[in-house]
Amino acid sequence: MARVVVVGAGLAGLCSALALADFGHEVTVLESGPAPGGQLTYAPQPFTLPAVLRDLFRKTGRPLERELDVVPADPAVRWVFADGVEVAVPNASPSGTRRALDDAFGPGAGAQWDAVVGHGDRSWRELRPIVLGHAGAKPPRSGGTLRDVAASLREPRLRAALESYATRFGADPATAPAALTVLPYLEQTFGVWTADLPTLVGVLAGRAAERGARFRYDVTVAGPSRDGGRVDGVRLADGTIGADAVVWTAPPGDLADERRGLFRRRRDHPAPAAAAVAAPVPAGTVRFPAGGGRAASWYDAAGDVHGAAAGRVTALFRRPANVTKTRGLYLAGAGAHPGPGIPLVALSASIVADHIGRA
Ligand SMILES: Cc1cc2nc3c(=O)[nH]c(=O)nc-3n(C[C@H](O)[C@H](O)[C@H](O)COP(=O)(O)OP(=O)(O)OC[C@H]3O[C@@H](n4cnc5c(N)ncnc54)[C@H](O)[C@@H]3O)c2cc1C
């Protein structure tokens, strides 16, 4: 049994704590805020790939669906354009989407979007092993930017719709990778889902506590403490806590002492205050401003959040790896591989738990 300190009780911290406590480790979660949840307090948040959460629940007790309702979003997304046209994109229905787009923009629009989804299918085949992989990732071979793919669409409103898959992370479509076409592909193929996030947070925290994890709130961790090349605990304002492994889910950029050799990407952002604030637009609705301005991002209400995508085409694939060069120090969460968003953050926690392994 290892003593594991998990820093942060957002989704990454909760999933890591649950998986590691279930593996039999002595887990302590240290959270600077007064309650768990982190960015999940910005509810609601539709998400893709529920299989990642299902897997964690199945491995650690009662299945996800026995704990909370996970409901398909209807529609998958609603696009609202400045000229008054609205498109409700059906969830997980390529033929329904084709029809909705033909109805909104005229015959052939659905076929244009099909080509985007086809690009996303090819990108997913390349990306899947990278996203599921345990290390930092190389960019996929299929190059270009999301704007390059958008430029191949004749319908300008479809171009704006495609580019919104970059702007939602705060990324620039002119530099974001073309491979972001995986997002509409995933929505069409595996669906978009919703769940009551406060319930999800409560169930994750409750199950982790049942497995023996201890939670301490209002405790800010200054950084990991080290003994030579390995971690031996964390530093607090008033002392240290010893640990054999530390799972850092706070912004990786806060690890000032560790930056050298740890990161290829230098730009990280502070986490938002863990206050309940309404999302900038109704979840699942994307509004396109007149004159081609960018659609709102997840982070407009929250300010910059770690995990916001940085400029270069390859930046999304240059997140710090989950296993660091300091032995026993692991990174999970939106700022680490494979990136932000509910399924990817949960995946980062599962990658870290698998690395640490059973007690
Ligand atoms: C407004 C908004 C809308 C979103 N919409 C969607 C959506 O529709 N679909 C989707 O899939 N994703 C969405 N996301 C993204 C998703 O919510 C995040 O990627 C995910 O919740 C991040 O989880 P995390 O654990 O990595 O980080 P966080 O939730 O930020 O958790 C990190 C925790 O660490 C704590 N902490 C920080 N520093 C320290 C320290 N030094 N010591 C101790 N504790 C510390 C913080 O208080 C926080 O609780 C949205 C995000 C926002 C902000």
From TrEMBL:
Keyword Oxidoreductase applies? no
FAD dependent oxidoreductase domain ranges (all copies): 3-253
InterPro entries named in the record: FAD-dep_OxRdtase (IPR006076), FAD/NAD-bd_sf (IPR036188)
Q: Which UniProt keywords apply?
A: Signal
Domain of life according to the entry: Bacteria
Task: Look up the signal peptide feature and give its range.
Answer: 1-21
Provide any one GO MF term from the record.
oxidoreductase activity
What is the name of the protein in this document? Answer: FAD dependent oxidoreductase domain-containing protein
